[in-house]
């Protein structure tokens, strides 16, 4: 019973820190966010942050994983509403690119994330998306909709194209204009996988 309560308290502490960090990173950016101010807003100490996340970078990773998970769920929901599996795959990729217009996603995941956490393709959350895309491509190949290509290679290229398009949109001084170009090019690239 005591162990369960302790685990619940630790999870509550982690959730408070992630919530506060998410707000601070979105408003101020990762580099400018003060860990003393962040922990004070939720009535905790820096020790709680270090105990739960190791350091500020570990906290950023937790925030990025949370947002990236939400992005993946949102993209899947968009894909599920499409007319068929192929359109669903395209819709998921395009939805991911479009999320680059959301200020929180743009700043935390697409600008600060790569700057402070490194290559996004190596993040655990990106690997989850990759595996889902691979399974979809496998189904499309089996159904004869997509050319008989290696599903992992196709999934990596599709996910890479969507991620790089989103990074381009996020860093652009004209994101709306770049978004239209990125979506059009993504559709053309992905269309090359279709069986004639």
From TrEMBL:
Record domain HTH tetR-type: where: 11-71
Entry keywords, A to Z: DNA-binding
Family matches, as SUPFAM superfamilies: Homeodomain-like (SSF46689), Tetracyclin repressor-like, C-terminal domain (SSF48498)
Molecular function terms, GO-annotated: DNA-binding transcription factor activity; transcription cis-regulatory region binding
DNA-binding residues (ranges): 34-53
PROSITE patterns: HTH_TETR_2
Pfam families on file: TetR_C_41 (PF21351), TetR_N (PF00440)
Domain of life: Bacteria
Matches recorded under PANTHER family: HTH-TYPE TRANSCRIPTIONAL REGULATOR RUTR, HTH-TYPE TRANSCRIPTIONAL REGULATOR UIDR
Protein name listed in UniProt: TetR/AcrR family transcriptional regulator
Organism the protein comes from: Aerophototrophica crusticola
């Amino acid at each position: 019973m005591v162990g369960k309560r302790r685990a619940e308290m630790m999870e509550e502490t982690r959730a408070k820190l992630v919530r506060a960090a998410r707000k601070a990173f979105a408003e101020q950016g990762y580099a400018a966010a003060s860990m003393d101010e962040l922990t004070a807003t939720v009535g905790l100490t820096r020790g709680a942050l270090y105990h739960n996340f190791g350091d500020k970078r570990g906290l950023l990773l937790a925030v990025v994983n949370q947002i990236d998970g939400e992005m993946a769920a949102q993209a899947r929901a968009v894909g599920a509403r499409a007319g068929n599996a192929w359109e669903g795959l395209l819709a998921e990729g395009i939805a991911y690119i479009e999320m680059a217009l959301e200020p929180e996603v743009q700043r935390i995941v697409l600008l600060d994330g790569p700057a402070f956490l490194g290559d996004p393709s190596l993040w655990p959350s990106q690997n989850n998306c990759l595996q889902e895309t691979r399974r979809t491509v496998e189904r499309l190949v089996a159904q004869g909709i997509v050319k008989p290509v290696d599903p992992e290679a196709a999934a990596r290229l599709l996910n890479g194209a969507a991620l790089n398009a989103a990074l381009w949109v996020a860093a652009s001084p004209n994101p709306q204009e770049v978004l239209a170009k990125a979506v059009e090019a993504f559709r053309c690239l992905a269309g090359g996988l279709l069986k004639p």
